[in-house]
Amino acid sequence: MLSTTLCYIEKNGKYLLLHRVKKKNDINHDKWIGVGGKFEPGETAEECLVREVYEETGLTLTKYYHVGVIKFYDNAGGDQDMYLFKGTDFTGELIKDCPEGELLWVDSDKVLNLPTWEGDHFFIEPLLKGARNLNMTVRYQNDVLTEFKDDTEPVKIHTSSKLSAPHAFSTRIGGVSDDVYSTLNLGMNRGDDVNRVKENWRRFFEATGITATEFICGAQVHGNNVHIATQADARPAYGPGKLIEADGYVTNVPNLPLAIFTADCVPLLMQDEKAGVVGAIHCGWRSTVADIEKNAVERFKELGSNHEDIHAAIGPAIDACCFEVGSEVIEAVRTLLNNSADAYITAKDNGKYMLDLRGVVRERLIQLGLKPDNIELVGDCTMCHPELYYSHRYSNGARGSLAATIQL
Questions:
Q1: Rounded to a whole number, what is the largest CA-CA distance in the chain?
Q2: How far apart are CA 18 and CA 280, in angstroms?
Q3: Which of 163, 166, 206, 248 has the greatest count of CB atoms below 10 A from its CB?
Q4: Band of the pLDDT at 247, cuts 50, 70, 90?
């Protein structure tokens, strides 16, 4: 999708609008709209916003917020994702000669009365009322409005009463992605539109209470490596730099979010409030039987933690009702847990077994010295609830990704 920005700047009850009357062959000719334009390669929505507003108005935005993403489908003008913003403060003086048209401050109660695209009313009205995080689709056929759809939903997350640090387990609710990625896809290697995924991350962090724009994530390989992360490892979504090859991260650095990805595997978030240490661990069955939980606890201890002070939250994952495995998995689980394993295994008539992987992770944490009362399971079975979670098994791999995050 072509990505663009559009901004409506408000000051003293008036909005800055651009009357498009100067450019030749302008699809927006004689329309009254906000200011904005196309992303340049590598730009974020915010960078494009600030640049375009300055180029068209001479104003430098100092305060603004995201109103939403409006997806336009038009057989005449082309398809685009428009990242909509409201500007609330700026510096500089308005230029007298804008190459796009005439810039005018318009009373807020007159904005909707001016000539513009019919579909624009669907997002301008909520913008004027202070709406945020819209997700709308507008479809035109030969410049005639044929469809409007409002898929706006608040971001839905799970949190744990055992963790005091900002944290969350995502669901698939509250983002802007479409099709198999609908809607809060956080996976950066699934084939989704890059800018939509960046917007999903912004919304996810906002819902979690995290303001950082750089975070820790890496290449998960279903191993047992747990990396002690520092600020030098941080990167924005799709950021430059080599990915860390690890399935878990631990840190004592404040304001440094850790993130792992799942779509049936077990997400584990950990915190020792006394020592000031947090962790995010990807516990697939291979990582679990390779004892990634032990490595996580050992990394906590390296940073001054005592196992009795560690709290843990185990998030949404495929549960025993749906997780059918073979004998090789069961043998590995029995090697890991010894006599405690059978409580999490149910034999089937076909020679397969149903495995409670979340229970296995919890049991291993207890064996490693965590107090049972300091461990909580949150969320549901990912395969049973495809409307709420991405499930690799349910979708046969056609999916987005969930994420779990925590920040000291």
A1: 80
A2: 47
A3: 248
A4: very high
Q: How far apart are CA 271 and CA 144, in angstroms?
A: 55
**Percent above pLDDT 90 for the chain:** 93
Please state whether 192 falls in left (phi above 0), alpha (psi between -120 and 50) or beta: beta
Q: What are phi and psi of 67, to 5 degrees?
A: -95, -35
Task: Kindly report whether the peptide bond that precedes residue 183 is cis, defined as omega within 30 degrees of 0.
Answer: yes
Three-class DSSP labels, 186-231:
CCCCCCCCHHHHHHHHHHHHHHHCCCCCCEECEECCCCCCEEECCH
Angstrom distance (rounded) from CA 403 to CA 175: 13
Can you give the pLDDT at residue 22? 82
CA distance 5 to 70: 10
Three-class SS of residue 1?
coil
- Confirm if 147 and 72 have CB atoms less than 8 A apart: no
Phi, psi of 385 (to 5 degrees): -130, 65
Average pLDDT, the chain: 96
* Calpha distance 308→370 (Å, rounded): 5
Cα–Cα distance, 342 to 367 (Å, whole number): 15
DSSP 15: E
Cβ atoms < 10 Å from Cβ of 115: 9
R_g of the chain computed on alpha carbons: 25
What are the φ/ψ torsions at residue 7 (nearest 5 degrees)?
A: -130, 135
Residue count (the chain) = 408
> Interior CA angle at 176 toward 206 and 17, to 5°?
85
